[in-house]
Amino acid sequence: MADIIPFPRRQPAVDDTLDIDLTTAVDAAIRDLRDIQRLRDLADIRARAEECRAMLHKAFENDGVA
Q1: Is pLDDT of 66 > 60?
Q2: 3 with 40: CB under 8 angstroms?
Q3: What's the rounded Cα separation, in Å, for the pair 25 and 38?
Q4: pLDDT tens for residues 10-61?
Q5: Nearest 5 degrees, angle CA 27-CA 15-CA 7?
Q6: Is 10 inside a domain boundary?
Q7: pLDDT value of residue 62
Q8: In this structure, is the dihedral angle defined by the CA atoms of residues 51, 54, 58 and 63, taken in order, positive or negative?
Q9: Whole domain around residue 58: which residue ranges?
Q10: Contact indicator for 12, 51 with CB cutoff of 8 Å
Q11: Which one, of 35, 29, 19, lies nearest residue 51 by Cα?
Q12: Based on the structure, what is the number of domains in the chain?
């Protein structure tokens, strides 16, 4: 039988003081969504999706689009 190695839960990386441009935010969101697809726990999925949404929203506002 295989040994399962538990990985620590991911800590939110959202920093309200960090400015991110829209292109970088979209690139990060694509990677985040790919990671989210692999998750099984609904609470983790929702938390990661909210982090991704908040990051995109902040970048969108900072870019002067919103």
Answers
A1: no
A2: no
A3: 20
A4: 655 555 556 788 899 999 999 999 999 999 999 999 999 999 999 999 999 8
A5: 75
A6: no
A7: 85
A8: positive
A9: 22-62
A10: yes
A11: 29
A12: 1
